[in-house]
Amino acid sequence: MLLMKICLLGDGAVGKTALRERYLGKQFSSGYVMTIGADFAVKKTQISTEEGKKNVKFQIWDLAGQPRFNSVRELYYKGSHGGLLVFDITRRDSFTNLTSWIEELYRNSGRGVMPITLLGNKVDLRDEVDDPITPDEAQAYIEELKGKYDLNFEVPYLETSAKTGENVDESFNTLAHTIRNHLKK
């Protein structure tokens, strides 16, 4: 069994906890409850590989996004294999803050540069705002990352909705594949 410690990171109220809860099979709740420091969950799953099915055990660390938790958060990155980097497509500030989240992950993990998957969450709300983040903007950001860091892995981008379940399972599975391929190198 492959053990993968992953972090959900991004600004407060982007939907990290809702994505995790949905992935764990729980129902969506529209009420916002701020994560204090970090929350932890485990899920066993299987991923399909060229060698067949592989068992994966995720340690999922859901990290508080508010600035007042910066110093506490640093502890929870240690030993991570990758991260789901989440922004809210309806909040441009959550998109522009992504770089600080990546830097925090890479600085505190003890492993340096590691696989990430970029998630544009709350796509069910796209039509309710005037200037949502577009997939093209997300892809342009990924190209910037490739120029800034020596990435020897792809950075996938998925649009998700914890409310509808769109691409939630795929997000975790995609990150698992990226981590596995990275570790094999």
Essential attributes:
185 residues; alpha/beta; Rossmann fold; 34% helix; six-stranded mixed beta sheet
List the helices and strands and how they pair.
Layout: E1 2-9, H1 16-23, E2 38-49, E3 52-63, H2 70-76, E4 82-88, H3 92-96, H4 98-108, E5 116-121, H5 135-148, E6 157-159, H6 168-184
Parallel strand pairs: 1-3, 1-4, 4-5, 5-6
Antiparallel strand pairs: 2-3
What does this structure look like?
By secondary structure, the chain is of the alpha/beta class. The protein has one domain (about 1-185): P-loop containing nucleotide triphosphate hydrolases (Rossmann fold). The protein has six helices and six strands. It has helices spanning about 15-25, 70-75, 90-95, 100-110, 135-150, 170-185; strands at about 1-10, 40-50, 50-65, 80-90, 115-120, 155-160. Strands 2-3-1-4-5-6 form a six-stranded mixed sheet, sandwiched between helices. The radius of gyration is 15 Å and the shape is globular. The model has no long low-confidence stretch (mean pLDDT about 90).
CATH architecture label name: 3-Layer(aba) Sandwich
CATH class descriptor: Alpha Beta
* CA(first)-CA(last) distance: 18 Å
Question: What do we call the CATH homologous superfamily?
Answer: P-loop containing nucleotide triphosphate hydrolases
What's the number of helices? Answer: 6
Structural class: alpha/beta
Report the sheet with the most strands, covering strand number, pairing sense and barrel closure. Answer: 6 strands, mixed
What is the number of domains?
1
CATH topology: Rossmann fold
Question: What is the string of SSEs from the N terminus onward?
Answer: EHEEHEHHEHEH
* β-sheet strand percentage: 25-35%
Helix content: 25-40%
**Average predicted confidence as pLDDT:** 91
Alpha-carbon Rg, integer: 15 Å
Which word captures the global form?
globular
Strand order of the largest sheet: 2-3-1-4-5-6
Low-pLDDT residue spans: none
* Total number of beta strands: 6
